[in-house]
Automatic annotation (TrEMBL):
UniProt-listed InterPro entries: RGS, RGS_sf, RGS_subdom1/3, RGS_subdomain_2
Name this polypeptide is given: RGS18 protein
RGS domain ranges (all copies): 86-202
Organism: Sylvia atricapilla
GO BP terms: negative regulation of signal transduction
Any single Pfam family the record assigns to this protein: RGS
Domain of life: Eukaryota
Membrane spanning stretches: none
Length: 234
């Protein structure tokens, strides 16, 4: 018969190991930006992110929160038809913005719409005192090297943006926001109308959870020459 004290000791050691592993995993998720620059760390962080990448995981993780994504299911098919006519019409309505955000999550590219929404919120700042902290947060989250939600910007746009962060204006992120808008319009939006999520809205049904697809290739500014104006008409 095994010694009860020995079994109790082994159980405590196992529990301690599990607790240590959990703390290490939690620490990796909250990794500071300067640590992410070390070779191999970003790749490990990305692999961990993929394991945690579930639609509900980032449900409220937005600087410009679009609201409850389930509300997109309450729109009428007639309203949803408009979203297939142009990208501008899709983003001009809150329910359309919510639906497109949910779609981008299935492609692992929701950082683009989150950045666009953060820029929209930034431009609504009521005073100059609000601009600096917001600008720093947006830059650290989406633009600086190895940012947790880094968007794909060409070198020139990134440099111009970074140089104005110290004394930001309401127009500080205009060039970067325009680039990301065009990227979504030309790369992601064409896949939205044929998606199961959009088709379910046209049929007046609550969208089923879409299957995740591999991240698509992101275009840079050189791919987007001759594109249409960056923002929808108000």
């Amino acid at each position: 018969m095994e010694n009860p004290l020995l079994l109790f000791s082994q159980a405590n050691i196992s529990a301690s190991k599990d607790k240590t592993y959990y703390k290490a995993m939690k620490s990796a998720v909250k990794e500071e930006p300067h640590k992410a620059s070390k070779p191999g760390v970003k790749q490990k962080r990305n692999r961990l992110s993929l394991l945690l990448q579930k639609p509900e995981f980032h449900e409220s993780d937005h600087l410009g929160k679009p609201g409850n994504l389930t509300k997109a299911a309450s729109v009428s098919p007639e309203e949803a038809v408009k979203w297939g006519e142009s990208f501008g019409k899709l983003l001009s309505e809150k329910a359309g913005l919510d639906a497109f955000t949910k779609f981008l999550k299935t492609e692992f590219s929701e950082e683009n719409i989150e950045f666009w929404m953060a820029c929209e919120d930034y431009k609504k700042s009521e005073s100059a005192d609000e601009l600096l902290p917001k600008a720093k947060t947006i830059f650290k989250t989406f633009i600086q090297k190895d940012a947790p939600k880094e968007v794909n910007l060409d070198f020139h746009t990134k440099e111009v943006t970074s140089q104005s962060i110290g004394r930001p204006l309401r127009s500080t992120f205009d060039a970067a926001q325009s680039t990301v808008y065009r990227l979504m319009e030309q790369d992601s939006y064409p896949r939205f109308p044929p998606s199961a999520l959009y088709r379910s809205l046209l049929q007046g049904r609550a969208p089923a959870r879409a299957a995740l697809r591999r991240r698509s290739r992101s275009f840079t500014l050189s791919d987007l020459q001759g594109s249409r104006p960056a923002f929808p008409a108000r």
